[in-house]
Each structure stands twice: as C-alpha cells, then as structure tokens.
Design a protein that fits this description.
single chain, 296 residues, alpha/beta, 14 helices
Length: 296
C-alpha cells in the first residue's frame, strides 16, 4: 500500500528505518522502504545503508554521482511499487509508533497529506544555533492550525504522504539541481493545479540540525536555485518577492551595497552570535547580489 522514500546523503538513517518498520508492522500494511543513497562519501554511512538494503521490505538505490534530493526522489518514485508515497528526510525520527497508522486513516480520501515537523531543544548545540533558532522561529507557521488555514504556504516534503499518480504528474522541478526550494515549488504547483493539501498532526522529529557554516552554505545553494527560477515562482516566494519589489523601486542596489560592505561582518555574527533577523538581512543581500550578476 505504501512506499516510503528516504533520500540520503552522508547520514546514517538506521534508527529511522527501524522505527518506520515497527510503525508499519503495527499498522499491518503492505509496505516498502526505498533508501536513495545520493553518492554518500562517508564510508561508515555507506556500510550502514548497505545493511539496511538487506532488510526485509527495504531496498537500497545507489547513485554513482551526486544528483541532489529532488532528482533522487523523482527517481525513487518511479521505482515505487505501491500507490501511496511517504517522502521522509533521512535526519528525521518517528515521534509516535502510530505514525503510519495515522497516515493510513486519511490516505484513501486525500491525495496530499502533510504530517508536520517537530524540533526539540536537546538537539541544539554550540555549533548549530543558527539552524536551531531558524527552526524554532518557524514554530508559528508549523503549528497545525496555521497549516490548515494556509495549506500551501511554507510547503514541506520533510514528512509528506502523496498519492503516487499525483506526484508523478508533477514531480520535483528539474531546476532544483542542488539544495533548496524543491518543496516550495511543488507546493506552488499543487496550488496552481487545484490539488487539495490536507494537514494533520503527525509530526516527525527533525534531528539533523546543521552546523552554522553548513546551514549558510546550503542557504547559498538554495538562493542560487531561486535565482534560476522564472518570475512565476519567484513572485510566490517571500525573499525574491521583496527583492523584485526593491528592484522595481530602483532600491535593490542599496541592499547589494550593504551586503558588499557588511556581508562579511554579518557572516561572522551568524557564526558566533546567530540571530534570525541578521540571517534574513544576510539572505536578502546575497540574493540581491545574485540578481545583479544575473542582470549583467
């Protein structure tokens, strides 16, 4: 009935797979877990994934070169045997044993169901405060009531059930060749096509909180992807929408100048004293520079 897709890059998801197998067993359903190894370079992770691929109901797909989360999920969906997909990030953990059962109860009547994301304070450390603070600041719009009233806003596939036929008719955008915005674009496409998105209280725990430097590197990659999208998508995404408005007002150069002068200082602050508002300014400045270089 359900194919669980877990894209992996250098992360040992052994605990997650064990929890999912237990949850599927309790739900008494037919299932498979497809683990997509996106050319991991950590040998200990490769060995752990190889063992997972030998488990009953589990299958390992190894990519010979890194193709990115969007591409490997698209590929796994084509290999899936069942009509419903659950897409889960490898750094998730199951919060409750009835995780699969909750999805089963709503799957037959809905094409797309979001379960939600939970972040726990014990996963914050000295080196990952920026990502943790960013995730913590997202608590308002990750709350169930907010998600129900804004079903397509901040759309996430960290923990998503979707009918396979629906996903295969849309799929992740091929322009998302690296980290960032494949979830957002999929949400916009679902809204554009009038596909209902249902939100329920069935969260997974996000445990893989990136270090400050890793998160900023990923942010750079995401903004580069955003810069390559057409206006239709950019006008639906807050940071590009702000930048485009400033550009129309002939004020974007001020943001770019600010970033050119103070960008290194902001980067330093994000490393040592991370604040979400500083991060927001830094992102806008970086994106302004990308727009300027694109225009040139």
């Amino acid at each position: 009935m359900i194919s669980i897709l877990i894209p992996v890059y250098n992360f040992d998801c052994t605990a997650l797979v064990g929890e999912l197998r237990k949850s599927c067993l309790l739900a008494r359903i037919d299932y498979e877990i497809i683990i997509g190894n996106d050319c991991s370079t950590d040998q200990s992770v490769v060995e752990a994934l190889t063992k997972l691929g030998e488990l009953e109901h589990c299958r390992l797909v190894n990519e010979p070169q890194n193709i990115g989360r969007a591409f490997i999920v698209n590929k796994m969906s084509q290999l899936a045997a069942y009509p419903f997909l659950i897409i889960i990030d490898s750094d998730a953990r199951v919060a409750n044993d009835d995780f699969i059962e909750k999805y089963i109860k709503v799957a037959a009547e809905h094409d797309v169901v979001c379960g939600g994301i939970e972040v726990r304070e014990e996963d914050m450390g000295a080196s990952n405060q920026l990502r943790y603070r960013y995730e913590h600041s997202a608590a308002t719009w990750r709350a169930l009531d907010y998600r129900k009233h804004h079903p397509y806003e901040k759309f996430s596939t960290f923990n998503l059930l979707i009918r396979r036929s629906v996903f295969d008719s849309i799929r992740f955008d091929s322009r998302c060749y690296q980290y960032g915005y494949e979830d957002t674009i999929l949400g916009i496409d679902l809204m554009r096509l009038g596909v209902e998105v249902v939100h329920i209280n069935n969260p997974l725990i996000h445990t893989g909180i990136d270090s400050n430097s890793s998160f900023i590197k990923k942010t750079h990659q995401a903004l580069q992807v955003l810069n390559g999208l057409d206006v239709f998508y950019q006008q639906h995404i807050r940071i590009s929408r702000i930048a485009m408005k400033l550009q129309r007002m002939s004020l974007l150069w001020l943001i770019r100048l600010w970033h050119k002068i103070f960008g290194r200082m902001e980067y330093g602050l994000l490393m040592t004293k991370p604040r979400v508002w500083i991060f927001s300014i830094y992102k806008l400045g970086y994106f302004a520079c990308l727009l300027y270089n694109k225009k040139k």
